[in-house]
Amino acid sequence: MHSKGHLHDSGASFEPFLLVSFALVILIYIGAAAYSGRKYNKWPVSRTLFWILGVMSAASALIGPLADRAHMDFTAHMVGHLLLGMIAPILLVLAAPITLALRTLDVQSARRLSRLLKSRPLRTLTNPIFASILNIGGLWILYTTGLYGAMHHNIILHALVHFHVFAAGYLFSASMIYIDPAPHPLSFKFRIIVFAFSLAGHDILSKYIYAHPPSGVMKAQAESGGMLMFYAGDAVDVVLICLLCYQWFKAARPRGSLAI
Amino acid sequence: MEFKPRNRSDHSIAEIRYAYSARNLWSGFLFGIGLVAFIDEAIFHQLLHWHHFYDKSTTNIGLVSDGLFHALSWFATVGSLFLFADLRRRKGLWPKRWAGGVLLGAGSFQLYDGIIQHKLMRLHQIRYDVDIRPYDLVWNIAATVMILIGIVLVIQTRRSSLNVKADNRHAQ
Q: H-helix or E-strand containing A91?
């Protein structure tokens, strides 16, 4: 091992805090599932599993050996990016946290939450175009400006970038597949077209990183990191594409007689 | 939930096929694009290592075009198969028209890849350190042949050609 990144020592003190937060997030979800399961139907075990796996994916990108290596190894950073920004969001969306919250909260709070979901700012945030720009645009800024290098010298910037990668990934997944209630649903065609463009933006950026290493990244690492981003990003997005198409397939099923 | 034809007569099968004629063509066309992209990636990039992930002479527009088509090919593959399943459950699959769509999609994408992406945008070449001309010729002629056969099949399956008798052979 080479000398540890300067951030690691200061970052280490955050690890217990993060670890407790992640454990808490899992416990709250399980508690809500058990509590609401007494009033309504039993909450599906699969959703709880998605939630636990999702939180663990995000956690493994932020604490532990992978996070340590990410400071000096761009490929490890990219594995972390995939876990935090793509895999964790899909798993968490599949866990339907809003639906669980709505049936756990008392009526008054649930109404307030659903009013919030219907509000204009959230309507904009969950628009596929806006979510794609936040998601893919954010990555372009991270890897093509000095931000990637600067992030490793500033703990607050580091935390903000990682929060953004996760939050934008979640918004993007939630804007594409509707598991939780969608107050302003958009057509499948519209979502598929926007999705195709943002996947293209992701692929173009991967090859751009391959050819133009981000600040402070060795050429060989940029090449393997770029290829990983390209192929693994595809693999994760294909899962999301299958889910989106499957939702169309269910919604478009023929009903009644001669359905043409 | 499944759709049941009013009767099993040839007439109703032809009618359903016609109603989903455009969907048959689209499903085939998109599947053709996805198929060629898959062969390109699996055989030429991964197995033979003829194609390169990135070529120093790649233009920026080439990078954009590659990204767009690469993304499109995933949607084409997955989407076309869901459309195919949808046609099956509606008993509206028209194999000949679908096959025409496949050839049209595969040929068009391969021709675009061979002429625009390889040559004009210099994304990468078919193979390196060899005389590239025979490779380019085979690549683009194969694409043109697919397009031509595809066009013939699509024309043969227009409504006016909806011959109930001929159709019946493929129906079940």
A: helix A88-94
Which chain B residues touch A232 with a CB distance below 8 Å?
A: none
Task: Report DSSP state, residue A85.
Answer: I
Which stretches in chain B have pLDDT values below 50?
1-6, 165-166, 172
Q: Looking at beta carbons, which residues of chain A come within 8 Å of B66?
A: 203-204, 207
Mean pLDDT of A125-143: 94
Could you tell me if residue B158 is inside a domain?
yes
Structure confidence by residue, pLDDT tens digits, A183-198? 889 999 999 999 999 9
Nearest Cβ partner of A249 from B63, B72, B85? B85
pLDDT digits (tens, 9 = 90+) for A61-108: 998 888 888 888 899 999 999 999 999 999 999 999 999 999 999 999
Q: What is the DSSP letter of B132?
A: -
Q: How far apart are CA B110 and CA B104, in angstroms?
A: 10
Q: In this complex, do A195 and B75 lie within 8 Å of one another by their Cβ atoms?
A: yes
* Structural domain contains residue B3: no
Distance CA A108, CA A144 (A): 46
Structure letter (DSSP) for residue A42: P
Query: In which domain, by residue range, is B135 found?
Result: 10-162
Q: How far is B53 from chain A (nearest CA, A)?
A: 8
What's the total number of domains in chain B?
1
Quote the pTM value.
0.85
- Inter-chain touch A203–B72, beta carbons under 8 Å: no
With CB atoms and an 8 Å threshold, state whether A246 touches B82: yes
- Residue ranges per domain, chain A? 6-251
Q: Which residues from chain A sit within 8 angstroms of residue B54, using beta carbons?
A: 207, 210-211
pLDDT surpasses 50 at A55: yes
Closest CA to B124 of A226, A207, A201: A207
ipTM, 2 dp? 0.80
Task: Show the tokens assigned to B47.
Answer: 């197995």
Q: Please indicate, yes or no, if residue B56 is contained in any of the structural domains.
A: yes
Note whether residue B53 is domain-resident. yes
